[in-house]
Specification:
heterodimer, A: alpha+beta, three-stranded antiparallel beta sheet, disordered N terminus, B: mainly alpha, 13 helices, 64% helix, binds fe (ii) ion
Chain lengths: 105, 332
Amino acid sequence: MSETRGQAHDHPKGQWPLYEIFVRSKRGLNHVHVGSLRAADDRMALTHARDLYTRRNEGVSLWAVRSEHIVASTPDEKDPFFEPSGDKVYRHPTFYDIPADVPHI
Amino acid sequence: MPSSASSSPGDTAAAPPREPDLQAHFDRTIARDQRVEPRDWMPEGYRRTLIRQIAQHAHSEIIGMQPEGAWITRAPSLRRKAILFAKVQDEAGHGLYLYSAAETLGADRDDLTDRLIEGRQKYSSIFNYPTPTFADVGVIGWFVDGAAICNQVPLCRSSYGPYARAMVRVCKEESFHQRQGYELLRTMMTGTQAQRDMVQDAVDRWWWPSLMMFGPPDDDSPNSAQSMAWRIKRHSNDELRQKFVDMTVPQAEKLGVTLPDPELKWNEERGHHDFGTPDFSELMRVIKGDGPCNAERMARRRTAHEEGAWVREAAAAHAAKQARREEKERAA
Ligand SMILES: [Fe+2]
Ligand SMILES: [Fe+2]
């Protein structure tokens, strides 16, 4: 990690690295991606994220993740990557025939 | 989602799709009114036009802090000062949401800043007008943020996902901006005659420049058709201008001010107000750099950037030192 950090600071213009910001809006909910920002280090990423994305009580918890550390699938929705789940209708409850008069199922 | 992720495990798995297929997929996404997301294939023109549109929008938010920011130290009460602080801080936030959206298209943040500072990219002409009185703060909130709302609400459905999402955040905040401005003016209108005159004077100065914010008339707006087809612009300039006029006229009546347009009147047949034509040659002049405050706004922005350089460098140096220390501790 420190290696990639070093690289970011070797940027010719000293541009701060990019962080992706995730906000938990209240207890019981997942953190949700809200956008990105630039910060010199992790601590600054959190304080900037607070000032930028939670000025009106939008959050109770923040995650800041260096963008370059995110591993992503390809964007094409017809990507063969998602194919394995395409033909498994039996994973859904509606696949099963149950008489209408059977209660609570 | 991650703006800069350039490769992924799936990339090498299949043969690269051909451009006509990619174009067809893109066209279908637009036709179905679905969103284009950062790493999707998109035509170069779409990417370029969006970067320019989002960057100019971001620059406008940033420069837009200046006319009102000038009144923070002179606000007449602690309440007004706190409100103005929050409003100007919001505008900074809007700029940052938008720069962040531009970066998802591959734009470089420092490059965008340079383009603004070197005058190679524009910002909204409205911020080149001066704010000589405190009533200007109110009229900016009412007119300028009101016009911004007309412009930005449809952009919440922009075909480009990150831009649309940024607009949703922005629009939520604009409502406060408009309301604080109107409330400020209402307070002044219940004050002395001198205060009422001050409000009317500000209305007279800002009305026409505010109408110009929507850009040139439709028959003189060459790039609009393509932007509409791409759904990165959803209503024409004249449609939005009409909407703003219809929205503002009853508010002006309630406030007790006169909008400085003798041609302004309700047209029963159209169901809209008729109104005069803004001086679009003035708009062109101000866009080209010859407005009352262009030089001042640019100089201020350039100075702020230059004077902040040592802070940015110090923060980067501190982060690098901290990282080296952590590394050493881990090695030990
Ligand atoms: Fe704004
Ligand atoms: Fe605003």
